[in-house]
Amino acid sequence: MGAEQLIIPFFIAAVAVASLYLKFLSFSGAVAAFVTGLFVWSGFGIKGLILMGIFFVTSSLLSKYKQKRKENLGEVHEKGSARDWAQVAANGGTAAIAGFMNLLFPDPVWMLAFSVSLASANSDTWASELGVLSKSDPISIKGFKKVPRGTSGAISRFGTLAAATGSLLIAKAANLLFNLNLDWTVAIFILGLAGSFVDTLLGAFLQAGYKCVECGLHTEKTMHCSKKTARLTGYEWVNNDAVNFLSGFAVANMGMIIYIVFSY
Fold first, then answer.
1. What distance in Å separates the CA atoms of residue 226 and residue 69, rounded to the nearest whole number?
2. pTM for the structure as a whole
3. Average pLDDT, the chain
4. Domain count along the chain
């Protein structure tokens, strides 16, 4: 067994523990991040870990950025800034699957799926974490009316710019790490940004939305004011984690289809 096989798992574990200590992750999130890191490393090596690390570090720091201004969103969003196992799986699950598949059946198509899924996750996270700081309220794509900041299924110019920047960062990093040509770099960027829009569509039309029966607040929580909230929209099984996973998984598969059509 080489030194790398001993050092890298220890490093991944150390990062997970540090993230738990810094409250970037909950305990279950730290365990999920460790497992995800192992799958990514097994399939894409250190370069894969670096790309995932870029997503994880930037998204975690953005979740803490101007946290006081985001405190009121805690009543709207289902979960806080410390990501649990479901949030880790939602954002990194497709990347982990791609790593495992590349270990079993090595092919560049898995690298593309991996990069696209992270570009999508980064795009959506940047849009969510920075979009809520916009001076103007976003517009719901369902009713085309202004809604409170932080509402799922809504877009703003500032949030869209943040989404594009987040996707571009991953696309450019993938280009440098995996020596991609311009065409595939652009494809990762476009598909990553598309993943953010798919997330918005699913959030608007499928994600469950609730209303507190006590104070009337519209929220993603199933409990508020110590009482069960009433579902107003969407499907009960479609929460934000499901939306995040489905959007990333969808565009990753779209990228694979494009690669197969043009490369085989």
1. 25
2. 0.90
3. 88
4. 1
